Amino acid sequence: MNIKDLKRRLPTWSGRSKWPALIVLTLLLLAGIGYLVILFGGRFVVNEEDLILDEMTTVETVEGEVIERIYTKNRRNIPIQEVPEHVNDAFISIEDSRFREHSGVDFKGIMRAVYKDIIAMKKVEGASTITQQLAKNIFLSNEKTWMRKTKEVMAALYLERNYSKDEILELYLNRIYFGEGTYGIEAASQHYFQKSASELTVAQGALLAGLPKAPNTYSPFDHPDKAKQRRNVVLSRMYDTGKIDAAVMKQMQGSTLAVERAEETSETWSNSYVDLVIHEAADKYHISRDELKRGGYRIVVEIDPVIQKIAADEMKNGEFVPGTAESIEGAFTLMDHSTGALVAVVGGRDYKHGDFNRVLAKQAPASIIKPFAVYGPAMMTGNYDPYSLLSDEKQTFGGNDYSPNNYDDKYEGEVSLYQALIESKNVSAVWLLDQIGISYAKGYLEKAGLKTKDNGLSIALGGLSDGYTSLQMTEAYGSLAQNGERKESYTITKILNRNDKVIHEHTPQKTEVFNAQTAWYLTEILQTAVQEGTAKAGEYPKALAGKTGTHQDQHVWFAGYTPEYAGSLWMGYDQSGEIDGSSAYPTLLMKDILTRIDQEKNLVVTFEQPEGVESLPEPVDLPVLTNVTGRLNLSGLATLRGTIRWSASDDERVVYRIFKKENGEDVKVGEVTGKNEFKVSAFGIFDQTSYYVVPVDPLTGKKGQPSNTVSLSWDL
């Protein structure tokens, strides 16, 4: 057979048979490519970041009590190990009984769904596995199209290749919506049963497993009959799949729903504090509000719920300073001055989330600045002590014709530093600031956390261009209770991420403002101010030191401290309006709050004097002498002697100086301390020399009023 015959016998491609083969090959190639795309293209559908589910942030006490939750979606993610096996079985039985066997797509279910779609000529049934549902919910929309379904399959296959079954189930249980604003198995369990998912019974797990299909339709609160019917369907499926036996199924189907709706509350007592926590998280730790809503943090804070509730209630219902218009507002802060921990914060009389938090508002401090701008710095020079005399005369200072007035427009010529602070003398404060120097005093203000750009003598009276917040004033006063050491205030003890790892923790910050002696002197003086001075309004029987302040007719303050806490209370208008009252109002309210706290906490009765500091002597009350007498008598060798007598004060520290009038001048002839008589020499039987007595305060050197004038006469 030659070559030509061989070629005739071999099959040849005719034009008619070649094209069908090419088409088949092309289709096979495209099918192969399509298969590979579906099999491996999931990486283009899946965004790994989307697998990090939004989770609520909790604000909780050091003891673990949750105060508030911050979230966009009410979700608390939990690991699959915390979900009971029977709860997992309930979801798998009703949603995807072959979950543990398939590779992400249930092809039998798909073929059944495709057949029904073809018969109906439209999309009527799905066969989505748990993995597909997860893929759709996280990465895709809810539209019913073949393209969306293809992407769903691609994403499901990707998830199955890269995550274990337990990881997929964990994501699914934490992701799904259970109605009434709850997302995930833990939030749903807390919402419907007031318990953690780890404590769910078989029947309760079955009820939750039945909700995702139609959360509103099967709501156990709104539609209990439908919810029970759906729960029982889930229990039947658990029996069908061998997860429970018939006896358990019957028992659980006969049980009640056992749901428990949480008490609805409109309480806002913690809102101010939590808003300050959110502010601190952003300002100090750079975690935004939006991040808190989705980040799943645990923020451990220093709030004392008992004190916070008392403060919020008193600020809402207590008596406030009257004014020319309504809407007088307030701000209250209370801090543990030993640590700086804020135990209570109230930013308004009826504060709700989103309101203006007034504890962060800067207000002119008025006279509550005096211990830090004037009297503390003056004593730190070593040239002044509590009984140093200060000018209290109406006068003009500097080249700017600055002429301050005392609030009562009364002037005593000179007063002790002690008296000037207790009675809040304005002229004395300005005079003393002028003596020690503005720049010197500002250095102490900065240490107290009260930095100011102002440079005038009005600093002494708190007339500042910017002012200070309630938090700043609380910190400053807290330093006086801590031997002059200021602690930075804070709300957040630590922040934990969603894996319960501590990522931020408070680091104490402290600054020495005054030495211990000056701080103790101020404490003793400010205690007297509360008992007898400008802050005497109201009743509080235990240890309290503090100062009041009134800024023109705009707002009033009280700031002070107990052995445990430092606090401030401001009342006034946010913008326009004039108050019609005094600083007695914030003082009264502060004492009311402390009284209620004392009933719960049993606060300390007295301040403890620090070691190594001197106690402040009690002030001397100079007597007014109106009954001085002079008598002549014979002494030895017929010498004439005279005796000047008066009614002495009970205070044996008083010094009495005796003067005689001689040739038109007053001449001191002697002095005694704590006695009621003085011996003088007489010049003759008819000696008519005039004498008088002047009481003197040994602490200040201040002289009292001269007594009546007497001459010596014989005793009859």
Automatic annotation (TrEMBL):
Residues 64-238 form the Glycosyl transferase family domain. It catalyses: Preferential cleavage: (Ac)2-L-Lys-D-Ala-|-D-Ala. Also transpeptidation of peptidyl-alanyl moieties that are N-acyl substituents of D-alanine; [GlcNAc-(1->4)-Mur2Ac(oyl-L-Ala-gamma-D-Glu-L-Lys-D-Ala-D-Ala)](n)-di-trans,octa-cis-undecaprenyl diphosphate + beta-D-GlcNAc-(1->4)-Mur2Ac(oyl-L-Ala-gamma-D-Glu-L-Lys-D-Ala-D-Ala)-di-trans,octa-cis-undecaprenyl diphosphate = [GlcNAc-(1->4)-Mur2Ac(oyl-L-Ala-gamma-D-Glu-L-Lys-D-Ala-D-Ala)](n+1)-di-trans,octa-cis-undecaprenyl diphosphate + di-trans,octa-cis-undecaprenyl diphosphate + H(+). One of its GO terms (biological process) is peptidoglycan biosynthetic process. The chain crosses the membrane at residues 21-46. Residues 330-567 form the Penicillin-binding protein transpeptidase domain. It comes from the Bacteria. Pfam families: Transgly, Transpeptidase. InterPro entries: Beta-lactam/transpept-like (IPR012338), Glyco_trans_51 (IPR001264), Glycosyltr_51/Transpeptidase (IPR050396), Lysozyme-like_dom_sf (IPR023346), PBP_transglycosylase (IPR036950), PCN-bd_Tpept (IPR001460). GO terms for cellular component: outer membrane-bounded periplasmic space. GO terms for molecular function: penicillin binding; peptidoglycan glycosyltransferase activity; serine-type D-Ala-D-Ala carboxypeptidase activity. Keywords: Carboxypeptidase, Cell membrane, Cell shape, Cell wall biogenesis/degradation, Glycosyltransferase, Hydrolase, Membrane, Multifunctional enzyme, Peptidoglycan synthesis, Protease, Transferase, Transmembrane, Transmembrane helix. NCBIfam families: PBP_1a_fam. In the C-terminal section; belongs to the transpeptidase family. This is Penicillin-binding protein 1F. It comes from Halobacillus faecis. The gene is pbpF.
